[in-house]
Amino acid sequence: MNKTSSRNASIAFKIFAYALCIFLTVLSILPFLIMFVNATRSTIDIQQHAVSLIPGGYLLKNFDVYTGKTFNPMQGFMNSMIISIGSTALNIYFSTLTAYALVAYNWRARSAFFSVIMGVMMIPAQVTSIGFYQFMYQIGMVNNFLALILPAMAAPATVFFMRQYMVANLPMDLLEAARIDGSREFSTFNRIVLPIMKPAMATQAIFSFVGSWNALFIPLILLTSNKNYTMPIMVSLLKGDIYKTEYGAVYLGLSLTVLPLFVVYFLLSKYIIAGVALGGVKG
């Protein structure tokens, strides 16, 4: 009787767990589904019935409205790709390199340097935005993509994550063996450390790319030329006053903005899963 009760309780718990996971999955997917559906509907339909799972027939009209503005969506897509890929690459590589310096070497100011990084991580970006704009204006970097790409090299949160991952997963004996064999430090970092750090790099690459792609405030004050606008800026310009906003075009712009983020996630998620599986095997 006890075994039967225990088995029934286990089955009931599994059913509850599966039902909860399915519910949370649907809850996560539903906003994106509504957004894609609204991209095919007219503004009047969206205003009357904001939530609908039935696609409309206004996709081409919404696309005409979206492309009929003073900016070029394809140019905005390329601008966002250049900025996001460039900033993500610099963010991941130099943050990993900084974490390597904090873990692999014993130097006097190492703890103090890490404390400074932790302190900088606590400062909101909005606090420094005015000074950052003034500095970029003085050195002539306004309307220049480098003003949005180069600062990504200094990413305290990524450095912290990389350091924590490196402390747990980077074998110091392997580094010592490479040095004994005559490997130079940059060669050791590029050929040994980076492959080990792939799961952490993939995780942070997703966050970095999403953050850079969705950035609006700093690009909006630095990029004042139409040809330099990014996708989020273009979507924000679609919103007029309450009588002129074409909500179908807005949802279409949001849908086009979100699609690259899905692609990046699906491309990098396999490295995250491989890293979790490898950690489970080690454990």
The total beta strand count reads: 0
Q: Tell me what portion of residues adopts beta-strand conformation.
A: under 5%
Q: Low-confidence stretches at least 5 residues in length (pLDDT < 50)? A: 277-283
Order of helices and strands: HHHHHHHHHHHHHH
Which second-level CATH architecture of the largest domain applies?
A: Orthogonal Bundle
Span of the ends, CA to CA = 37 Å
Average pLDDT, rounded to a whole number, is 84
Which word captures the global form?
A: flat
* Class based on secondary structure composition and strand pairing: mainly alpha
Taking the sheet with the most strands, its summary is: none
* Helix count from the secondary structure assignment: 14
Helix content: over 70%
Provide the CATH top-level class of the largest domain. Mainly Alpha
Rg over alpha carbons: 24 Å
How would you describe this protein?
The protein is mainly alpha-helical and 283 residues long. It has two domains: 2-58; 69-237, MetI-like fold. Helices cover 75% and strands 0% of the residues. It has helices at residues 2-38, 43-48, 59-67, 73-104, 110-121, 129-138, 146-149, 156-169, 172-180, 185-196, 198-214, 217-222, 231-237, 247-282. Helix 1 runs antiparallel to helix 14 (247-282), helix 3 (59-67) packs across helix 14 (247-282) and helix 5 packs across helix 8.
